Amino acid sequence: MLTPPAMIDITEFNQVFTIPPDHGYGERLYNEISRNRRILEKLFFDRLVEVLKVNTANLYPPRTMQDLRDLHYRIVDSEIALHNKHCLLFYLLKDLSPSTHTETELAAAFAHAVHLPAKLWTFLEGLWALDRLQFQTATDYLTHPSLIPTFPDDILDTLLKHAKEEDARLALAYYHTVSPPLKSVEVRDRFFKYLADINVTEAFYWARARSGEEHRHLLELLIQQTLHSFAGEKRAARGVELVDLPLSEEEEEWFEAYLIEGRGRLLHGARDTVMMRRIATGRLKEAVRDGGVKGRKYDDVSWEVVKDGIGRGLGPRKDEDSFMEV
Question: Can you give the pTM of this predicted structure?
Answer without folding.
Answer: 0.85
